[in-house]
Amino acid sequence: MWMKVLVAAVIMVLLSPVFAYACELTGYAEPLERSAEIVGVEERPMYEAPMPDYLIPGVEVEAVSGILAGLVGTALVAVVALVLGRALRAGRG
Amino acid sequence: MHIPDGYLDLTIATTFYLLSAIFVVLALWRARKVLEDRHVPLLGAISAAIFAAQMLNWPIPGGTSAHLVGGALAGIYLGPLGGVLVMAIVLLIQCLFFGDGGVTALGANIWNMGVVDAIVGYYVYKFVSRALGDTPKAKAVGAFFGGWIGITLGAFFCGVEIGFSKTFLYSYNITIPVMTTWHAALGIIEGLITAFVVAYTLRVRPDVLELPKVG
């Protein structure tokens, strides 16, 4: 059963470039970005993430880059959650 | 709804870091007492699925976009504090590895999309489900309202955090209405997706939703 959920997660990651493209076509912006636009505020990045904007640096094709980043992230989250879950469970004795 | 760096005053950022930290510590403490072996794969699967689902940006007519946040969903499956843990994990990794959400804003983001969304989402779900008789349909309706109201309230807090920041020129009279009303509308989608996932689970594996909740 958990495999099915993981498969669903992988499928969603594989589909993400399609959605990103659709959003580009419609020129969307999140309400948070809109708020910033209205007030005239800009971001001030203070930290350099290894895969900024869900893209793997060096992978030319954006869709592939995005998918790879998404898969890495999904795996990371799963592992961290599982390790944490095990640690918390083990603590009960 | 991930607040980037540069949007929040230091005071606001710190305040919400503290508030979120309290709830995360509480969640870890409660989880230690409640979690059984059978919770562990659920924790992993839900966290991974929510991360993946958040990668889908849905273009909305009118020039905006929405993506599933999933806090209420996490709360419904793992309990209010369990949901806080799930969202904290997702948000932490999004921030550190992908720059999604500022490092100074992590506390606020965990508050909005974790603490508020999961806790409010869960209790609204419970309240509505119970009021409607706790049948599978009642739970789906409860999940809808949990998802919808959870996200709307989370967005409200987001509007508060940025709106009371000097960086945003204390424009809370703009940010609070903009964030809240837009997400009240977009939240309907979140509600529907939450309801759909819960309804599907009730059909194929209702036992998953019967696990002890971390609360």
List key phrases describing it.
heterodimer, A: 93 residues, mainly alpha, 3 helices, B: 215 residues, Arp2/3 complex 21 kDa subunit ARPC3, two-stranded antiparallel ribbon, 3% strand
Most residues in contact, chain pair and counts: A-B, 64 and 71 residues
Q: Whole-number radius of gyration of chain A?
A: 18 Å
The secondary-structure class of chain A comes to mainly alpha
Strand content of chain A: under 5%
List the secondary-structure elements of chain B in sequence, H or E: HHEEHHHHH
Widest sheet of chain B: strand order?
1-2
Specify the biggest β-sheet of chain A: none
Regarding quaternary structure, how should these chains be classified? heterodimer
- Classify the secondary structure makeup of chain B into a structural class: mainly alpha
Would you state the CATH class of chain B? Mainly Alpha
β-strand amount of chain B: under 5%
Uncertain stretches of 5 or more adjacent residues of chain B: none
Shape of chain A: extended
Number of helices of chain A: 3
Helical stretch count of chain B? 7
Distance between the ends of chain B: 25 Å
Overall mean pLDDT of chain B stands at 95
- Give the rounded overall mean pLDDT of chain A: 90
Tally of DSSP β-strands of chain A: 0
H/E element sequence of chain A: HHH
Helix content of chain B: over 70%
Walk me through the structure.
The complex is a heterodimer of chains A (93) and B (215). With 93 residues, chain A is an all-alpha fold. Chain A is built from 3 helices and no strands. Chain A has one domain (2-90). In chain A, 68% of the residues lie in helices and 0% in strands. Chain B has a single domain, classed as Orthogonal Bundle (Arp2/3 complex 21 kDa subunit ARPC3), CATH 1.10.1760. Chain B has a two-stranded antiparallel ribbon with strand order 1-2. Chain B is globular and about 50 Å long. Chain B is mainly alpha-helical. In chain B, strand 1 and strand 2 form a beta hairpin. The chains are: A mainly alpha (93), B mainly alpha (215). At the A-B interface, helix 1, helix 2 and helix 3 of A face helix 1, helix 2, strand 1, strand 2 and helix 4 of B.
